[in-house]
Amino acid sequence: MLVSPNVDSPPQFDQILHLNDPYCDPPLARDGYTLRFSNNRYPFLGFFTRRGHTYSNHLLATMHYSYKTFPVVLSDGAWWLSSDLVEEWQELENNLRALTSYMFNKFEAFVPVDYMSFPLPRTYGYAKARATEASMRSAALKSRDAFAALMATCSWLLAIKSFKPLAEAPWFLRLKQDQPTACHWLDEFAESSLANFTTSVDRVGVVVTPGCQFIEYVPKFVEANVPVWLLWDKPGDYDKTICKQYQPPEDVVVRAWESYYLRKEANDRQRREAIALKAPSMAPRGDQAQTTVFGVTDVPTLSEAPKPIPGSRQRRGESIDEFFSRTSRENEQKEAAESSEQRASRLERVEHNASFPLPGKRGARVWEWEQDGVFWVRQPVSRAAIAENWINYAPGHLRYDSFNNEWDLSETFDPSAERPEDPWDEDATEAYMGNEVGHAGSDELRAPVPLDIQTAALEKSYSGTVYHGSSPIPEPLQDILRYRYGFTDPEPNEQLAASTLPLGKALRILCDVDSLWPDTDVTKDQVTAFVQGVMDHNMPATLWDLCPANPAHPGVNRAHLTVTKLDFGGHIWYAITPVPDDSPGWQLVVYDATTVLECLRSYSNPISKRAMAGFFLSTGRPYRAMRTFSQVPPSHQPAKMTTGPVTAPVIDPSGPEVPTNRPFSASGLGWRFAEWKPGTIDFAAYERKRAEFFMSARGQSALELGGIVWRLGMEVISPDAVLDGHMSDVETRELCTDEDLEIVCGVYHVFCATDLDRSAQQAHFSWWPKHEIWQKSPMNSGRWTPWAETWYQRRLKDIKEGKAVLRTAKRWRESLKQCHACASFEASMSEKSADHLN
After folding, report:
1. Which of 78, 221, 274, 735 is geometrically suited to a Cys-Cys bond with 129, CB 3.0 to 4.6 A?
2. Which helix (H) or strand (E) holds 206?
């Protein structure tokens, strides 16, 4: 009987068959990928991630190579693994080994007396040469898989002694303080799946037996979401142990055994009937005993056919022979109806696949037949598994269906067919090159190792990242004056009052001192008079189209654009809608009244919402493409909105909440100490993390905020790329959080004292000003200005040259106070624009 405190179902039937399989000598990673009974030599086995696990973290990205994709080179008559990959693996292995040794000795973890570690990756000689390409690839594959055991050991130690959240554990913060140059490596480690004990990391799990010598850690396994089953055949199996708490009530045990015998009797009856009637391989269903209470679960695979996998085209309970018999008839019908072009294309596929080539990313799908009790189920094989294992499939175990462009895989097709030679059996090749595989010792990872975290390879991997952003194109000042601010030319002979405002200061107020302007006294006088009039609230009617007496005043309103005022808890926004509405499923809203009037002046012909959003996105103007939002911090932008017709927007505070996954950070770029000074790796790591965020859906939504957040996003992704995948998903989207924006602006949480008291005074130091600081600064003009771009490029140059220093919020406010008149001008313009819209 199996009892589980954290899994709702028993292990799969094929897993049960391998619970007591012997281990290889030396043990291999594939031993860890298989669910086993608890083994006192390897208490960390349950923490293995399942084969095919995707490592999304940058630190572990080098685990994604497969047999076919390893970068190998031929040099001096021998085959080598790429030097870059060797450096990354050596650094990762040495750091993980040192960190594991550190945790063993710091935590004083109890281990069974016969504890042993798996061979380390270096044991397989990935840094050494091989005589053939195949042997080099095989050594690389074995080395890569050996990392799985090392990482499982790290996770096991973290779970039993430290647990989550690692980034805030006092011992981990102290470690970062002691290793200031390794902060980013440790941050990457803390954010990886090694320290992630949520259900999002699919671990193999373990079946605990009463003889287990690490029973005291089983609750830690449960807390870490490692699947745990306890083999519980006798009531007293776990008496006087901590697992006693998981013992089911006696009546539940009785019901479980009753269900078992009823099911066994039904199976026996099915078997007799199948023999008597010479039925096909699918056994008829018997009377299934109902188990409806106390979470007792029967193993369904022994008496009832499992549900087919969606898309497999298999029918429930259909055997392999029945499946191919039916699909063969269907293919005959397809062949009779196919056109000459379809036939030529199909025969071309047949010819191409005759040599069993590796299916590419868009190639044929592969389905593997797996036994589930007495039934066979057609299971999809992932592209990653295909790339890794295709070379090991025997041709006799494969069948190709040219009509559906699919491969089927099963040893039952030809039991006599032999797989290609096992790449693990290479003793001759290894001996030839002098690279025999050694065995792991019992103290391999527990032996004290100097803790000196290296980061050279990690830093090199950061610098090799290429981003596909773009620099903003400056807008002509004449267009800004005319369309954004409503400047109009006076009559040729009209005399304007002389302005006391110098042209240079007027251009600084307009945040553009670099644009060329026609060198005429009249034009200069017009510009200075216009700027002075806005600042003094005394505008000559002939210069501003918002003055009712101005001839251009009626043109501010457009019949093909409708503006609707929206009130979100005291925050006024405006919905801009084309007439007719080309996309009624979502609204385009802005909070800047000046931007609204800019649209009304600019578009004399009908325009789509997408085109307007493209204009905003390419020039840094804040906007929102919105329908339903998840929870939004009140510090920026509205919460949720469900839109009906444009004329009647409905605020829906109780509307459906979007489940929010926050995989990036809870504290910006992490915690640092008072003595810490950033280096080149710090900015490189920040750029990588910022790019990772902007490539996500929520990161692309952050571009709508405009300002410094928008400009930093332009370093990573182009406006066109955002629009292509972004505007089609506005029905339900998430807004970024304050923590997300801390990543964008490069914020570190720095302790002002050297102690680890979390209540001690802290300061936020950042590479760039925070979003809210930028919003309130004179640099914010509702668009990205040439002046802002000049400032940005100067700051970026200083950072790249190592001249820039991180600044606190106070220092950023002081540094951005370059022209108070800019803020006064924008405020006055926004006020007048809002009055006009009202």
Report:
1. 78
2. strand 206-208
**Up-side HSE of residue 486: CA atoms within 13 Å toward CB?**
34
Placement of tokens 């191409």 in the chain: 352
For residue 165, whether the previous peptide bond is cis, meaning omega lies within 30 degrees of 0, is: yes
Residue 286's pLDDT band (boundaries 50, 70, 90)? very low
| Residue 14 to residue 370: CA distance in whole angstroms | 8
Q: Which two tokens stand for residue 740?
A: 């997300």
Extract the tokens encoding 662. 């926050």
pTM over 0.90: no
Nearest CA among 617, 789, 624, 582 for reference residue 720: 617
Q: Where are the chain's structural domains?
A: 253-293, 554-837
pLDDT of 382 reads: 87
SS3 state at 2: strand
Residue position matching structure tokens 């009546």: 251
Whole-number pLDDT of residue 636: 43
If one counts every other C-beta atom within 10 angstroms of the C-beta of residue 248, the result is 16
pLDDT bucket at 494, cuts 50 / 70 / 90:
low
Neighbour-count burial of 758, counting CB atoms closer than 10 A to its CB (0-12 exposed, 13-18 middle, 19+ buried): exposed
Cα(803)–Cα(101) distance, integer angstroms: 38
How far apart (Å, rounded) are the C-alpha atoms in residues 589 and 677?
42
Give the burial string for 2-34 (b: 16+ CB within 10 Å, else e).
Answer: bbbebbeebbebebeeebeeebeeebbbebbbb
Q: Quote the tokens at residue 406.
A: 């699919």
CA distances from 676 to 42, 89, 665 (A): 39, 27, 20
Angle formed by the axes of helices 456-463 and 183-191, to 10°? 80
Could you give the C-alpha distances from 477 to 266, 483, 528, 829, in angstroms and in order? 85, 10, 13, 16
Q: Are 140 and 127 in contact (CB under 8 A)?
A: no
Parallel/antiparallel/unpaired status of strands 365-372 and 406-409 = parallel
* pLDDT for res 648: 29
Give the Cα separation of 807 and 151 in Å (integer): 37
CA–CA dist 192, 422 (Å, integer): 32
Which DSSP letter does residue 203 get?
B
